[in-house]
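Running this now, will post back.
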Amino acid sequence: MSTRPTARTSCGVLEGSVEDGISVFRGVPYAAPPTGSRRFAPPQAPEAWSGTRDASADGPVPPQPPSRLRAAMGDFAAMQAEDCLTLTISTPAADHGRRPVLLWLHGGAFWTGAGSLPWYSGVPLSRHGDVVVVGVNYRLGALGFMNLPGVSPPNLGLLDQFAALHWVSEEIAAFGGDPDNITLVGQSAGGLSILAMLAQPASRERFRRAIVQSAPFGRMLRPLDAATRIGESVQRALGISDAAQWQQVSAEQINAAQLVAARELAGFAVTTPPFIPVADHQLLGDDLMGAALAGALERDLMIGYTRDESAAFFAPDERIAQASDDQVRSVFARFFGAAADAAIAEYRLRAPSPDAYGLLCELLGDASFGAGLFDFAARMSDYGRPAHVFRFDWRAPDNRFGACHCIELPFMFDTLSAWDAPMLKGADPQEMAGLAATMRDAWVSFARTGNPEHPGLPHWPRHGDALETMLFDRSSRVEADPAGRRRWKYWP
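Update: finished.
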């Protein structure tokens, strides 16, 4: 008789495995495979099965190119296939225990990553916090976010995420989770996806809380016509001319073609990826921030970013380190116009280093992440629903990546052993383990009560008039206005 854990869903029975005392169900389908005629179609309901389905092994990750941040994060190897709309569920027990649920939406610029990676294992959170953790795989790149009339509507990857949330709210009780206490957690692209869900009443009603990490508040949605031009560029790179031919090309060919389109978009100190959510005026309107704010006022919210967000994007790019004064000024002029020189003078005082690399990393970190985040937090406070705000400041010693984009992930998941990441090299393991426990417990506490405080943290007030912000570091602490919004004339 099997001692492996089982869970009965509306589609059939799943049999998982036990990892470090936690029941884990892998490759759980939340939608039908988006293959064949379902390629470039909205997600459809999963198909039922008879008997017991083996859920002890991961399914494939979505087709994707190598990550552009692998120089900092390290890399991963996993089988890729279009049949990828699956979940990874970690739970202390599939016993109808009504535990808090954390639903994880990974980052990766909407064209790399997977919720099933060992980096994002929910086992430590489940084991230490008595919570259920769900990782989501969703379509990426051209297969998930291309807009091309007659071929693909925009935002399919977002619809996948919405379908995953719907499935979890309907089925998670069978895994010991509480469908009335779901917290969305997302980083980077996943953070932006949560803002889209906050903007949608139909999705918003299915979760209670949200944790938004390093969302690109400063680069939101792509206009419909611009997204169409990118889709046309991919089609040209494939050498095809009509919709029917899209069913014959492989995912590998589409991957290669979207890299051609990405190179066409590339520019000096430009980080916007080719496939991002589109303002289609059906799912998403032009003012995502306004709609997301209205939704956030009805939910508990925790938002944050890292101190050196852009360092991981630019550390491998010698053009940034060697940029001329004119090139630096041209980037500042994109944002400040005639005030570019005054802004540069201020940023020389603020940046960790006043050279081209330091100035551009500081500016573009603010432009894409920090400035918009603090504006959003300020507006929430003005409306009487302040959020908990944090900044991740810890950095490995003598590390060129600093407190870069994604560096908080090994700590909040408490999965340091799964990472072989240059951004962590040279750090003290005991110090890292202590910070991981601090963050892990804060995320669990927030999911349970809407308040991230716990005995291992100092008092963490919401972000109000004093601009209180939790700084996660060797000695985590709260500071008033650590980003200097009242000290500096220009961003953040």
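The longest strand covers residues 177-187. More later if anyone needs it.
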